[in-house]
Amino acid sequence: MSGTKRTEPTFQRNALAPALLAAAVLFLAPVLLTAGWGIVVLFVVAILALIVGWFAVQARQWVWAAVFAVIAVAWNPVFPFGFDGLAWSLVQPAAAIVFLVAGAMIKTPRD
Questions:
Q1: Domains in the chain: how many in total?
Q2: Any transmembrane segments, and where (predicted)?
């Protein structure tokens, strides 16, 4: 082994793991909704949107915080809006892409 020293990253992506989980659920949402798992999809997406939104607040990335507040409201299981049809089916993968992009972009300095 050579004497080179590895440098530690200067930032961390805390939102990446919950964003990946939410994206997986949203990509599978059309199948899950037809199988009667709609309420589970709403709970998982809303909770993970709040988690990713919190990491955005910690990173002081206010636009992402607002985006995930809207996602949490749209997918809220307590007072569901009852969206359905083709438009709702198209919004699911679009939201998954938003989660993936945010998970990659939201980063905080490492102490």
A1: 1
A2: 15-33, 39-57, 62-79, 85-106
